[in-house]
Description:
elongated; alpha+beta; Outer Surface Protein A, domain 2
Amino acid sequence: MRGGMFVILCAVAGLASCGQGEALRKKVETAENRSAAMESKMASLEKLVGAINVKDDYDLAERCGKQASSAFKSLFGEKQESATFTNHYNKKLNKCFVMVVNKITVGRKTKKELSRAVSIFDINENKEYGYYLKNAKDEAPKCSFLEKPCESEKDWDALTAPFMGE
């Protein structure tokens, strides 16, 4: 099929001899082979870059966890029952966030929650992004995230999800 295509090209181009067409066919074939080889190399390079990016993301997330743990321990000590933390490296924002939750409870077995205070910080900038405060006696929490007030835990979750969940 390919040879026939070049004979037609020879006739259309008005070449005196298809020998010239054969030379053209070989050049096209060589160019196609080089193109295929280049595409293969590009695919390999893209895989390699992707693997490097995954490793970089993992390293940044791991470093975020270590920074959060260190900051938490310096604020609350080694053993803390009422306070916990969760960290998250947000790849899209290239930031390390830590969410600190401090609960005050009563009763050794029931651990009824009297109040809860939650704060989210950018660990590297030492900047608070928002807070959530809820007392058992209050119906509505006091909360704000990026200076946007919220009226419920559902609002808080919606405001914080893009920072702590991506």
